[in-house]
């Protein structure tokens, strides 16, 4: 355990050296590249205004999203009604999509347990 701590300290020291050396120039370059996104004047009031604009814009987009959801559900219902005409390729895509969702669920569970498979820390 002590050797891992020393190893972790060494990596942290190395990372801080890299950040100290390149961090400032990267920060300046990033701000220069994205200058058109920066709002002037950079005040708390302006940030609060932008935050409210984002919230209410997202809130206003809910009906459009709901309509899209209903279209997707109707499409799935039509596929289910015409399942005898379903091609093997379409069924394969649906199965792969389901497996991918399950895999992401499993990965999320593993991450949530602290990257352990059994739930016990070793």
UniProtKB/TrEMBL annotation:
Q: Which GO terms describe its biological process?
A: proton motive force-driven ATP synthesis
Recorded GO MF terms = proton transmembrane transporter activity
**Protein location:** Mitochondrion membrane
Keyword annotations of the record:
ATP synthesis, CF(0), Hydrogen ion transport, Ion transport, Membrane, Mitochondrion, Transport
- Pfam families per the record? ATP-synt_G
- What InterPro entries does UniProt report for this protein, alphabetically? ATP_synth_F0_gsu_mt
GO CC terms of this entry: mitochondrial membrane; proton-transporting ATP synthase complex
Query: Does this UniProt record's set of keywords contain Ion transport?
Result: yes
Q: Could you tell me the superkingdom of the organism this chain comes from?
A: Eukaryota
For this chain, the family text in UniProt reads:
Belongs to the ATPase g subunit family.
Q: Which PANTHER family match?
A: ATP SYNTHASE SUBUNIT
Specify the protein name.
Answer: ATP synthase subunit g mitochondrial
Annotated organism of origin: Prunus yedoensis var. nudiflora
């Amino acid at each position: 355990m002590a050797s891992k701590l020393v190893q972790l300290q060494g990596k942290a020291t190395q990372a801080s050296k890299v950040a100290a050396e390149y961090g400032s120039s990267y920060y300046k370059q990033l701000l220069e590249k994205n200058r058109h996104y920066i709002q002037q004047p950079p005040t708390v009031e302006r940030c609060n205004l932008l935050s409210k604009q984002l919230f209410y814009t997202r809130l206003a987009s809910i009906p459009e999203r709901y309509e899209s959801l209903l279209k997707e559900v109707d499409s799935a219902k039509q596929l289910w009604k015409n399942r005898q005409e379903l091609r093997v390729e379409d069924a394969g895509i649906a199965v792969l999509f389901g497996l991918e969702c399950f895999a992401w669920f499993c990965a999320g569970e593993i991450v949530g347990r602290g990257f352990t498979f059994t739930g016990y820390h070793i």
